[in-house]
Amino acid sequence: MNLLEYRAKQILNSFGISVPYGITADTAKKAVEAARKVQLKKQCKRWVIKAQVHTGGRGKAGGVQMASSLDEVESISKNMLGRQLVTHQTDTRGERVNLILIEEFMPLNTNFGEMYISLVLNRKKGCHSLVYSSYGGMDVEEISENHPEAIGQINFDRTDQISEELLEGIDTGMGMDVSYRDQLIRLINSLCKAYIESNALLLEINPLVITSDRRIMPLDAKMCIDDNALFLHPDIRNMHSEIHMDPLEMDARRQHLNYLKLSGNVACMVNGAGLAMATMDLISEAGGVPANFLDIGGTADSERVEKAFRILLSDSGVRLVFVNIFGGIVRCDRVATGIVTALQNLGHTEIPIIIRLQGTNVEAALEIISNSGAKVLVTDHLDVAGEMIRLKLGDLV
């Protein structure tokens, strides 16, 4: 689960890590009220207004702006809220800004630049990694690509502290002098504790800065929490924000379906992640573009299949639906019953539907579909299904 910036900072704060003080707002009026409260608490004369979206590169796209008066806070907030923010990490549609963070402006020590630090699960090496650099900010991706020697990495096992031996020289590696070493190590171990105890897969600080009063402070924070560990953290689970999800993904989540919306024209429903990837390849080879990832799982019943089918047909960009089921634990007749029930309840649809069923109770499934009178194309061969997709897409051009 990816957390918005302000949520990640709340977690950091709970582990004793100082972050800039800020208040969220979803209207320009609330933004001005938030700015007043921030000013009263921190005696600041400037604010930073940040779009709360699940994407990087906000600064270059206008998602992070400075304000020096309450009038500017109001004007910037009006322009930012409700806007589709398009960054190098989004598609052309961008992500809608429904929430902003009004934060105190932190005066910086001009002797130091912006730095970078992150903790991440290193699947390749089977450990955790601390990644750091004396170069941070909006161009950190270019630094890592063009100057890999400027990026340092320390691998460590699951612990809430990294040994001082491993951290030897990290202060100079991040462009700091020795007077900051103890403070930097305390911060790293606090970040490590927050990362481990929250069951995070990623904790990224970019930029990390030194303020004018010599404090090392995260100006931004990104966290991704392991979904499989959320039952351990009901407080973090409640931080999930549905207002930033696609409506179909939100609906699928409520139905406990594994669904991810994509930008294509062929919807697909499968059982199993591996089969889903192979199905998406098949769609691409047939000349289509996958419209989603949807895995109904290994224990799906007809009711679950019906819910999944409704979501597929609710996507306005879908021009064809392809159901690809290999029946093992999931019986083909249950899938067929769910599809037939969904089509009967939804009524007539102009969207072509191709169904490939193979495995447990496939004969019974084919009979259920045949007796239903549903206008669908059915096969038990994958190569035939691919040809059906190609021909149907050709008819739709």
Give a description of the structure.
This protein has 397 residues and is α+β, with helices and mostly antiparallel strands. It has three domains: 20-105, Dna Ligase, domain 1 (2-Layer Sandwich); 107-243, 2-Layer Sandwich (D-amino Acid Aminotransferase, Chain A, domain 1); 245-396, Succinyl-CoA synthetase domains (Rossmann fold, 3-Layer(aba) Sandwich), CATH 3.40.50. Helices cover 36% and strands 24% of the residues. It is built from 13 helices and 19 strands. The strands form five sheets. Strands 1, 8, 9, 10, 11, 12 and 13 form a seven-stranded antiparallel β-sheet that branches. A four-stranded antiparallel β-sheet has the order 2-7-3-4, covered by helices on one side. Strands 15-17-18-19 form a four-stranded parallel β-sheet, sandwiched between helices. The two termini are 39 Å apart.
SSE blueprint:
Layout: E1 2-3, H1 5-14, E2 22-25, H2 28-42, E3 47-51, E4 64-67, H3 70-80, E5 84-85, E6 95-96, E7 100-104, E8 115-122, E9 127-133, H4 140-146, E10 151-156, H5 170-173, H6 181-197, E11 200-210, E12 216-218, E13 222-225, H7 234-237, H8 247-254, E14 258-261, E15 266-270, H9 273-285, E16 292-295, H10 302-314, E17 320-327, H11 332-346, E18 353-359, H12 362-372, E19 377-379, H13 382-396
Parallel strand pairs: 15-17, 17-18, 18-19
Antiparallel strand pairs: 1-13, 2-7, 3-4, 3-7, 5-6, 8-9, 8-11, 9-10, 11-12, 11-13, 14-16
